[in-house]
Each structure stands twice: as structure tokens, then as C-alpha cells.
User: What shape does this take?
Amino acid sequence: MPISRLQYLQAMDIVAWRARAGRGANAPIAPAPEIDVPVFARADAGWEALQARVRVCNACRLHAGRTQTVFGVGDPHAQWMVIGEGPGADEDQQGEPFVGKAGQLLNAMLAAIGLARGKVYIANIVKCRPPQNREPASDEVAACMGYLHAQIDLVQPRIILCVGKVAASNLLGRDEPIGRMRGTVHQFKKIPTVVTYHPAYLLRSPLEKRKAWEDLKLARRVVQQGL
Ligand code: URA
Assistant: This one.
């Protein structure tokens, strides 16, 4: 039996909601951090060259522990781009981001705002699994970030949704608690960017799902209103 939108909303612990106007959409914009991107990792190399390069990447220590790289998945012309932290055990095995329990909740979050997983593009800050699911270290992020920049340049999404502090801090260059980064519209290379909680955190702290739902609606408003 197909899963209904109501079931997705229930997975988000959403019983009823009403749209609220204008929240934070005109908030001040933080400049995106500039990074030097080697030519092989630039968008002008194209998707195939980029993916081939990631597949053999050994630019940081994470390559030693991976089963395979986890490049990214979805519509290469998506309006929405979701950025997570890095692959976990399931993703490392399957070579696709967000396929474990957190991924199931991410799918439900997307479905709750009417988006099929295949309609968005999903990628991570780092493309190889950090051991024991620790956060990626700053040198690992620095070694990998060019790939994500190139992916964003290729997709040219209308909205970026950063899930979790690691994604938000590294993309936006802000070392702030997630509670201060969410609820407003940032910009990354002139692309509106909204921050929300990581689905793995929401699985542990379901009471925060309501705030994540507000964030999703904010992102949807940005796309619908072309803010
Ligand atoms: N968590 C992430 O941040 N990314 C994944 O791909 C899976 C879990």
C-alpha cells in the first residue's frame, strides 16, 4: 500500500499546521567562505569527471577506511539540494547518501513538503565514511569541500538545505550552535540556504521535529516565492 502524505507528516510528528508568513526571510546574509578548488574538482570538468575523480580520491586519511566513496544522488537539475555530514555504515556499504534510518526520516521530511527523494539532489560534506561515525576533521573537510562546491555549481539549486551543524558550519563558515543558524535564510554563493537539524538528531530528540518542520516550510517558501 502506498504511504500517504499523512503518514509522512506523522513520521515528522506533525498533526496539523498553518503557514506563517515572512519568518526570517530577510535576515542578514553571511558571506560564503571562499576556497581554492583544484581544476579537477571544478564544475567545468562535468559530472562524470568529477565523479570519477571522487571515486579514486585519496586526498585525506578517510580514504583508507572506506568501502566505497559516497558521491551524491538525485536529480542533477534539482531545485532542492540537501547537504549532510558524511556517510555512515549503511551509506559506505551502499555508496549512496542517507540510506539508513536517518535517511528514512529525511525521505519522510521531504515527502511531508511534497518532495520525492528522486526530485532533490543529496550530497555530504565528506564523501568517505569517518571511522566510528565521528565528525570529519577540519583537514578532511578541507580536502573534500571542493567536490561539494563543484556539485553545487553543477546543480545550481534554488535552495540548499543543510541538515546538521557539521553541514551548516562548514558550508556557511559559521561556528555557531544550530539553534542560532536555523530559522533564517543564509546565502551560499547567492543561493538561499536554510539550516535544520540532522535527521539522526531528530530520531534521538523527536520533540525537535516541530522546529525542523518550520525550517522545511521556510525553505519551501523561499522556493515558491523566489526569495
Ligand atoms: N548522515 C549524513 O550526514 N549523511 C549520510 O549520508 C548519512 C547519514
Observations:
- The first strand starts at residue 73 and ends at 74.
- Residues 15-31 have pLDDT under 50 and may be disordered.
